Amino acid sequence: MKWYAKAAEQGNAGAQANLGFCYEKGMGVAKDEKEAVKWYTKAAEQGNPGAQRNLGACYFHGTGVSKDEKEAVRWFIKAAEQGNTEAKLSLGICYDNGTGVAKDEKEAVRWFIKAAEQGNARAQANLGFCYEKGTGVAKDEKEAVKWYAKAAEQGDAWAQSNLGFCFEKGIGVAKDEKEAVKWYTKAAEQGDPRGMFNLGLCYDYGKGMEKDVAEAAKWYAKAAEKGYASAQSNLGFAFEKGLGVSKDEKEAMRWYVKAAEQKVAKTLNYLGKKLTTREIGQFDAKPADFYFKELSGLPLRERGSFENYLIGMGSLETGNFLKAKQALLMAGNQYGPTAQNIQPDSMRLTRLEDSWENYVLQILDKERNPIRTSNYGLSPFFVYYLCGTPAGNALPYGIWILPPFGRFRPHLWQALR
Fold first, then answer.
1. CB-based contacts of 193: which residues, under 8 Å, 6+ apart?
2. In what order do the strands lie in the sheet with 360-364?
3. What pLDDT sits at residue 300?
4. How far apart are CA 137 and CA 376, in angstroms?
5. pLDDT value at 406 more than 80
6. What residues contact 208, with CB distance under 8 A and at least 6 apart?
7. Model confidence over 148-171: pLDDT tens digits?
8. Is 186 in contact with 152 (CB distance < 8 Å)?
9. What is the set of domains in the chain, with CATH numbers?
10. pLDDT at residue number 324
């Protein structure tokens, strides 16, 4: 430290860069981020690429200086053009996210490639992800696996988790659940929450190993503690059912609520249903309607998905029929018939105060008026009988199944189509 300081005072750029690093990290001197920026700036202005990259990082994060993403990019570019690998990675990330520069996925890939070819593990992982998703480059799952493998072999936990997923699902490589478990384990042991969750799933379902619900719960818990929402949901289920842990509904609800706070669609839907039917104690949870409203408020995904279906059903629960129709259409062909039955301007609902045991069928005519209502037990045969419609023929204008909870909640009878 003493000699760095002497050389830095004499204008040696390398010493100035090293002195800045010592102040930033508190190595051999009291930590002082402003002093770090001072020395990084001196070295960067002399063209030292390491100092330029570190100065850019200080501006990027607001370390010892006011946050300024455009200034960060300016210094990243200077360092990257001199070959600094970390600066190339940082610049790729900026272009990928549109941080301090206009978003440009192709330019992001260009910089990821430059850094990846120099052996930077995180750049290799990012490049693998771009190839897997077709972001900024033509989709190529085999190329994705190649770069994930390079990064994973260097110990990058995120790449290890992604590589495990590729082996589990057969993405760009022959499906191999044992190999998937190997990479999930490596990622999980480094504390990667996704790796922990996926390893828990493998134990839960016996993928690539013997089924072990206790071990599954252990890894769900580790990922849940790190804030991984899906793990929180699964851990809640484990506590609710006593799978690998002692049954504890209060603890189950605690984890369900945490997952719901992160807007996990399946958890919002599950909580809404379970609280409505009182199949689980409310404890610290909000009322069922709250979770259905949260579900209805989620943005729709660009591609068809089960999540869009859940959003659609949540929207039906809250009476948001326009969004329900849109969500179910976006969910894909599997749910299209359900969406076609939704007529937002013609809903006719009956307020019910019946027992909780029976559902109610309501049939609408072409004038959009209810023509028949029954609160007897339902089966597909019974529905066809009431409709006067044999299986396979066209249905009346609308058919609704209403749960008898004294609520205005329509449920579609999907089996009719």
1. 222, 223, 226, 227, 228, 231
2. 370-374, 360-364, 398-402
3. 85
4. 57
5. no
6. 168, 176, 177, 178, 179, 180, 181, 202
7. 999 999 999 999 999 999 999 999
8. yes
9. 1-118 (1.25.40.10), 264-342 (no CATH), 349-417 (no CATH)
10. 75
